[in-house]
Amino acid sequence: MPPASVRAAPVAATVRPARPRDQEAVRSIYNDAVATTTATFDTEPRSVAAQRAWWAAHRAPYLVLVAVAADEVVGWASLSAWSERRAYAATAEVSEYIAAGYRGRGIGSALLGRLVAQADRRGFHSLLARVAAGNPASRRLHRAFGFRPVGVMREVGVKFGRRIDVHLLQRMAPRRALRTRAGGGTPPS
How is the chain split among helix, strand and coil, in percent rounded to 5? Predict the structure, then answer.
């Protein structure tokens, strides 16, 4: 992150649930991250078909939010299944991706704040985030919303010709009674 004296001005953005028409903007932002960052360890752009499958996997209790500034989607965040095993149903993984020209301008905070609030409303007990080494701004952002480091997975990814560690961060929901739907650990919606 640049020093405070050269940081770009914050951007006012509206955060809302993603709509089907936002899929291409979400895919475009993600594909830029694939090509230019270690925020994702995907190495090939996401196809239209893969985007549709990803979108379908984010129905309730999961979700996708977008940040909109000047009628343009400038970032997105999602709650995704951590595992398909039912015992993990009250755990979700968080992801945020911001368009290149909008990074460091408050969009990530707006998205993650809303995402965490939605996760609490949806009954998720544990939220997990994976942050590649070399991204201290993302670790600071997550810490600001209650995520704490729980470990480092050493050299688990290879991108841009180097081995990369991944920091695992976790946020526990405020204490509440254990509630699950009959037949498994699915969090209440």
Answer: 30, 30, 40
